[in-house]
Amino acid sequence: MRNILILAAGLGLSGCTANPVASVMLPTLGVTSLQKRDTVDALLDTQTQVRINVSLLGVSEPMFTALSTEVYEGQVLVTGTLPTPEDRAEAIRIIWTVPTVRKVIDAIEVGAGEDPGAYLDDMRITAELRGRLLTDGEVRSLNFNIETVRGTVHLMGLAQDDRELERVVYHAARVPGVVRVVSHVYLYDDPLRRRAGEPGSS
């Protein structure tokens, strides 16, 4: 569902624009102003996500609707369920065709389809963790994206330092139903981060 919403915004299905970046620029700017990251990088991530969705949809509508993607500074987290290992490999191949993708985190499951009960439980975990981060005065909650898949919490985003990241992981591990916490979070001063204006950031 998230892919559909982002694609609709990116393609300007409301009739406002056909520019994938321009159509989502204002909301992206609003959120980025509250985060400690470069606006150019945030806009590039939005553009990357739209391009991924367009590419997936162009190859297979069922594949597009079955998958969700999160993009943060060129890292792409892919979740969802596909019928075969070949479908999974094809989805990853398609994502890598987008030039601004720097890393693909493959969390795709192979099986018959998504379990509605597990999906609802994952939504509960994500919502509860988001609430815990919002009430922690030592965590900048807007700097973190949360994706939960069958009890595994994937964290993406930007931590100011090791202490903040440790607090986020601690909160995630304490939410009932969480079986594993996987961090893909960058530290603010991590030299591996993509910086606006550097190679690979435009």
Please characterize this protein's 3D structure:
Helices cover 44% and strands 21% of the residues. It has helices at residues 2-11, 25-32, 39-59, 61-66, 85-96, 116-134, 162-173, and strands at 67-72, 75-82, 103-110, 144-149, 152-159, 180-183, 186-187. The protein has 202 residues and is α/β, with parallel strands linked by helices. Strands 4, 5, 6 and 7 form a 4-stranded mixed β-sheet that branches. A 3-stranded mixed β-sheet has the order 1-2-3. Pfam families: BON (PF04972). Residues 44-112, 121-189 form the BON domain. This is BON domain-containing protein. InterPro entries: BON_dom, Lipoprotein_DolP.
Secondary structural class = alpha/beta
Count of separate structural domains: 2
Largest sheet: 4 strands, mixed
Number of helical elements: 7
In which range does the helix fraction lie?
40-55%
Run of helices and strands: HHHHEEHEHEEHEE
Oligomer: single chain
Strand fraction: 15-25%
Give the terminus-to-terminus CA distance.
28 Å
Give the overall silhouette. globular
Q: What is the average per-residue confidence, as pLDDT, rounded to a whole number?
A: 84
Q: Care to count the β-strands?
A: 7
Radius of gyration over all CA atoms, rounded: 17 Å
Low-confidence stretches are 12-34, 196-202
How are the secondary structure elements laid out?
Blueprint: H1 2-11, H2 25-32, H3 39-59, H4 61-66, E1 67-72, E2 75-82, H5 85-96, E3 103-110, H6 116-134, E4 144-149, E5 152-159, H7 162-173, E6 180-183, E7 186-187
Parallel strand pairs: 2-3, 5-6, 5-7
Antiparallel strand pairs: 1-2, 4-5
Helix pairs in contact: 1-3, 2-3
